[in-house]
Amino acid sequence: MACTSCASDKKQANNDPRWRRVLWIALAVNAAMFVAELAAGIAGGSKALQADALDFLGDSANYAISLGVAGMALAWRARAALLKGGTIFLFGLGVLVAALWSVFHGTVPHAEVMGSVGFVALLANLAVAALLYRYRMGDANMRSVWICSRNDAIGNVAVMLAALGVFGTGSAWPDLTVAAIMAGLGLWGGTQIIAQARAELRSASAPTTARAQHG
Fold first, then answer.
1. HSE-up of residue 1 (Cα within 13 Å, Cβ side)
2. How confident is the model at residue 11, as a pLDDT?
3. Contact 194, 85 (CB under 8 A)
């Protein structure tokens, strides 16, 4: 599920080389799974897989921003978070529109593709969570990244349950239901990130405005 307590929202990130190395691995895994799951979702006709790819996209942005702008000024981190929030929101909106279109024009997705790819995605998230496990009791930045990866496994389980539902009923409704829920979470998460980023931009510009007024 889309993370709203992301590393990029924290004031400072830990620059420990081992921590950064783990983040690079997590970024590579999540980016690869985003591409793979999105392609599988399109090929298999599964909107739930496409929605689950949103989690990997969000986490990839999370890790990239944590690595790239954590040491920069608040305004730059807020702008990066704003871009991330907008991307997640637009992707969630696209998945939701696609799910609604499929209600009237779609076909039954391939349950075996959903189940197998969902299982691979679950393994990927568990592997990333295991890498981050040692940092679970670190600062807020470290803890939030681990919690995000851990919670994403819930979305993978939901996709696998949707696959069972499609297989058992021969209907696309389990897939569309899970897709709509996960897309909604993406919209909500993106909105929360955008709101916080805008607040941080206002906060960052306030001292400059105050100095200009008294200058």
1. 16
2. 44
3. yes
